[in-house]
Amino acid sequence: MKTGITQTLTVQEAVTNGWMVGDDSDSAFMGKRNAPDVVNIGDAVDVFIYADKDGSPLATVHKPFAELGQFAMLEVIDVSRHGLHLDWGIDRDLFVPFNLQHERLREGDRVVVVIDLDDQGRLFGSNKLHDFFDMNLDPLTDGQEVSLLVYGFNNVGALVVVDGRYTGIIYKSETFQTIRLGDELTGYIKTRRHDGKLDITLQRTKRAGTLDAVESVWERLQAKGGFLPLTDKSDPDRIRQELAMSKKQFKKAIGALYKQRRILLEDGGIRAAE
Fold first, then answer.
1. Per-residue pLDDT at 83
2. 238/73 Cα distance (integer angstroms)
3. By three-state DSSP, how is residue 248 classified?
4. How far apart are the first and last CA of the chain?
5. For residue range 32-70, what is the model confidence (pLDDT) as tens digits?
6. Which phi and psi (to 5°) does residue 74 adopt?
7. CA neighbor of 257 nearest in space, from 225, 192, 198, 211
8. What is the DSSP string of 180-223?
9. What is the CATH number of domain 206-272?
10. CATH number of this structure's domain 71-130, picked from the four choices 3.40.50.150, 2.40.50.140, 2.60.40.10, 1.20.210.10
11. Which of the 8 DSSP states describes residue 266?
12. N or C end of the chain, less CB within 10 A?
């Protein structure tokens, strides 16, 4: 039986207000409100194992928003003199000690934490994420599609958890959409850095990225009635606002569309070819 993860355990016996689940060597209490609607001795049940304040194991069929070693954005539901209490989807709050907060938070705030386990078998959250990231980037490749969770910001961009285990940054100079704390996005690895961090882009790289830009420009051109008042001389901010892409991407896209004879280049913009 492993604390902090969902696993399949056997219902061993009925006790006051619930059941014991596990095996002959290890068991946890599953209360009635944390059990399936129908329970029989010998049933196999999928339960999440956590602990009460004394470290005794508890089981629930309810799924937490994150399990041991995972990152998630959770809401602060109470602030005590010892730390924060977060809602993580089960009946026991997730505790974050004050010394594991990156910043002071208040009730109602939302914060990205990682789930860890103390030496008494109790799960807790930490908002200081750095020590939990995997710095070995060898399994990754440039251009690889990855899942992202935005966990913070600095003066150059948005900080993201990558594939639930690495850390990366999306530079704001390369961002063409609004990004908020807790956003879950799809991105692509741009650079694997020597410091164990990743540079991430929200646009596909190389040829695939150009193909995406081509279709974006073409779709916008059609939506505008066949004429778009943008050229390779247009202001980069105007291109970013109209098409959510960089000027470099736009120039590659209209170059490709022109070679395909899908557009005409005019002084005031680009026009869909007849």
1. 92
2. 34
3. helix
4. 68
5. 999 999 999 999 999 999 998 888 899 999 999 999 999
6. -125, 160
7. 211
8. -TT-EEEEEEEEE-TTS-EEEESS--HHHHHHHHHHHHHHHHHH
9. 1.10.10.10
10. 2.40.50.140
11. E
12. C
